[in-house]
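Q: Focus on the shape:
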Amino acid sequence: MLSRRLAREIAFKTIFQIDMGQNELEKSLEQRLSEAALRKRDVRYVQRAVRGVIDQLPALDAQISAISEGWQVHRLGSVDRNILRLAVYEIVFMDEIPASVSVNEAVELAKKFSDPQSARFVNGLLGTVVRDGGFQ
């Protein structure tokens, strides 16, 4: 499970890097994946999650904006925004990952890379996504 946590962290960092630097997807993936020794299935998870988030970005951002009560996604902190994008993608498109795992891991990412208030915010928003059954 630890390697999946590392894979999720790499996926988040890659999405963050693309978002912040407007870096090319494949180049960012290659760079981030070269920094860690992951099992093949975890490399596949990173590739699928990152490509999926980027492919579904408009829909993910619309969903996050819809549930964040007055906060458009572009106004969220960049760390929180990209944690939410990854977690919502997992919840909606990666049925093999239990929603509770996606929520818990997103909260852990927020605790590590943001702050306690962000962790609560992320947990609350993702709870709404899970309760509402995905995209609205």
Notes: The chain has one domain: 2-132. The chain has a mean pLDDT of 89.
